[in-house]
Write a structure and sequence with these properties.
Blueprint lengths: L9 H6 L12 E13 L2 E9 L2 H4 L1 E2 L2 E2 L8 E3 L6 H13 L1 E17 L7 E16 L12 E8 H7 L3 H16 L1 H4 L1
Amino acid sequence: MVEVITLVSASYYVTNPFNPDKLWAMPREFSAGGVVARRATDGWEVAVIEPRSEDRERTTGKRPVKQVLALPKGLVDPGEKPEETAAREVFEETGLRGEILTKLKDIKYVYVRTWGDKQRVFKIVSFYLLRYQSGTIDQISKDMRIEVKQALWIPLADSEKRLSYRGEKEVIVLAQKYLQEHAEEAK
């Protein structure tokens, strides 16, 4: 009897979510980001970014694509602690410096890389609440404009509705709760 061996691409095992025995092989990424808050005359404001994406900047017919607003975040560099990454990414993407008050939440999700190997990637993003200290919103380097179209302050009260990603909306709710419970400390 002749045994037939079927060769299956290694990426099948890495990216196939329906093969639980091989999920261990899925690439992982660790990122961190921040909710920068400051007091304004009408309450708290938070810094958000509008990421730059060719797909989002195109329009389909007469309907423009909805504006995407997100929290600043990025990959944790080797040897860097997540809270250091959060502060660095906030500065790089918004132009603001802040003091970390607390860790808010880890968001976990799977995405498919749109570049290179098209792998499914398991990602964890740790979010921190930062009290604004200095800097001017949207004053970022020319190199960062590849990633960030604009950075802006928005009212914290409206931010849950305006952010585009479900996990980040949950982070904002936690930031609101923390700021209400620690109003004196957060000043």
